[in-house]
């Protein structure tokens, strides 16, 4: 039973088809005089950035674009973007794209009002000052970065991923236009959707869960169970796209206050060292982490099975909980994520390093079952050599 908890969300949300057309109005309301647009090369080439610059140009608002962002956003990109913002006199940041772009934009906004280096603020609640105004425009339905306290960045010099977490790092406004997601290819739709699911599910079963986040998690999982498959196979389906972007947003509202679990703890070193896309690595890990965690929250895993359409009538609570793992394995298969950790070069000799780095994550402390290093290694082993793949191979 949770006796005391806190829930805070300073970010305003504008959600709906076509809301990006009001970008200039929001910039003016936030007293922005020159905008730094932060987007990766993909959103620039796809013409998404043009959809943002047009309303700015029509309203005489000057801007400059920064696009030197990699799939795993680097601390070094934050430095370059900050330098450009300073040189150009930008006082408002608009981030557009997936998690890489949004995390970079948030970090740049943070450093516009805080001295030193972004490394100085790694951890949680280390930031002294509110960031400059940041408007986050997501183009994927998964990361939830438009509404979270976190910027997850790669430090290329030492080859590690680090996280900056602060209420001051949350965007001023999340401008969420589902129509921007309709052009996403199936594999990215699948990976980002599984990431959103992992956010909702890990928040729901972990030890920091509380009544508000629980309700948000349940709603997000219901929406994902009904819409992810459709969004993958019918990319033009506007209703499915709308529901998935909203589900991602709601899942972010859930985990923002609770943190996550072992899937995300392991995803950091696996992403940093083996370049596994974040949504993909979470999809690979999630069923194995669920299997490990069942005994820590049997009742909620049984509820998850029901949410995902499993027939649990006549089953014990433990038997129903096992069905949750079955359901997520099937979902992962249906959306086309068949990779294993082995496919990305993860081998037995890497597991000590992966487990030791994962254990440093704050997500471990809130996981429903306290893991040992060997437990983390066994989860990775299960994700390297799934039973189904061994049967086929043999």
From TrEMBL:
Segments forming domain Fe-containing alcohol dehydrogenase-like C-terminal = 189-384
Q: Which UniProt keywords apply?
A: NAD, Oxidoreductase
PROSITE patterns xref list: ADH_IRON_1 (PS00913)
One Pfam match, by short name?
Answer: Fe-ADH
In terms of CDD domains, this protein maps to: Fe-ADH
Q: Does the keyword Oxidoreductase apply?
A: yes
Quick check: keyword NAD in the entry?
Answer: yes
Q: Where is the Alcohol dehydrogenase iron-type/glycerol dehydrogenase GldA domain?
A: 10-178
Q: What family does the Swiss-Prot or TrEMBL record give for this protein?
A: Belongs to the iron-containing alcohol dehydrogenase family.
Q: Which PANTHER family match?
A: ALCOHOL DEHYDROGENASE, ALCOHOL DEHYDROGENASE 4
Provide the protein name.
Iron-containing alcohol dehydrogenase
Q: Which organism is it from?
A: Bacillus suaedaesalsae
Species lineage: Bacteria, Bacillati, Bacillota, Bacilli, Bacillales
